[in-house]
UniProtKB/TrEMBL annotation:
Keywords: NAD. This is Nucleoside-diphosphate-sugar epimerase. It comes from the Bacteria. InterPro entries: NAD(P)-bd_dom_sf (IPR036291).
Length: 264
């Protein structure tokens, strides 16, 4: 069995760690929930020496825009079996069009403003990593059901806006497939089979819970954070065919309907 070192043991990486341990792998990780301090260079390099596979779920640094893992330990990662959790945000706004792994990212095409995530995505690809581009992630404690229950759900009046999403356990199964099959380097989209508007998902959650729909708000009047506004300004459908074909991956929750039903 292998030994997996995870940089950043967050919401998604914890699911991956648990799945790999169930398969008999050794797993060590940096971060507050891990067993190694990221800044303890000696301990990290020792762990890298033992690891057969390395996964980073660490996002770019908000202040510098750099990738903390590559900036700090990049030289020690060269030539290793690398895996990186990225975002489908690297594709930018596609006005509702489908994107796949052959679609140029913002960093590759030079479109739009500088995008730290797209640059990190490209840097990991150039290191020979398997890069998983993830859309909106939902799962236990983080879904439309939780937002509706807490009174935090929004409905924004953008009739043509659509995006993809993925259940956290489907991310885990896709990454596990890549780890255990020695998957080819490159990008993989892990998203469900049904891109849909945020309003559709919120309305379905309300129906499941028997709660009233939030009021429909215009984007200009919704008083959203810059991050949330940026999210609503992007519009794309993410194709998942490569992951199904190359990794033999099938989402357990092919649409938000199955995903929310399981969470309920």
């Amino acid at each position: 069995m292998g030994h997996l070192l995870i940089f950043g043991l967050g919401y998604t990486a914890k699911r991956i760690a648990a799945a790999m341990r169930e398969l008999g792998w050794q797993v060590s990780a940096t971060g507050s929930a891990g067993d190694i301090a990221f800044a303890d260079r000696e301990a990290v390099l020792a762990a890298l020496g033992q690891a057969t596979h390395i996964l980073s779920s660490v996002p770019p640094d908000r202040a510098s825009g750099g990738d903390p893992v590559l900036d700090t330990y990049g030289e020690a990662l060269a030539g290793r079996a690398l895996f990186y959790l990225s975002s489908t945000g690297v594709y930018g706004d596609r006005q509702g069009a489908w994107v796949d792994e052959a679609t140029p990212t913002i960093a590759q095409s030079g479109e739009g403003r500088r995008n730290a995530r797209a640059e990190a995505d490209l840097a990991w690809l150039n290191m020979g990593a398997r890069v998983f581009r993830l859309p909106g992630i939902y799962g236990p404690g983080r879904s439309a059901l939780d937002r509706v229950r807490e009174g935090k759900a929004r409905r924004i009046d953008l009739p043509d806006q659509v995006f993809s999403r993925v259940h956290v356990d489907d991310i885990a199964s896709g990454v596990v497939a890549a780890l255990t099959q020695d998957a080819p380097a490159g990008a993989y989209n892990l998203g469900d089979d049904l891109p849909a508007s945020g309003n559709e998902v919120t309305e379905h959650a309300c129906r499941l819970l028997g709660l009233p729909l939030p009021a429909l708000e215009a984007l200009e009047e919704a008083n959203l954070s810059d991050m949330a506004r940026g999210f609503y300004m992007e519009n794309r459908r993410v194709a998942n065919g490569k992951a199904k074909r190359v990794l033999a991956w099938q989402p357990r929750y092919p649409t938000y309907v199955e995903g929310l039903a399981a969470l309920l």
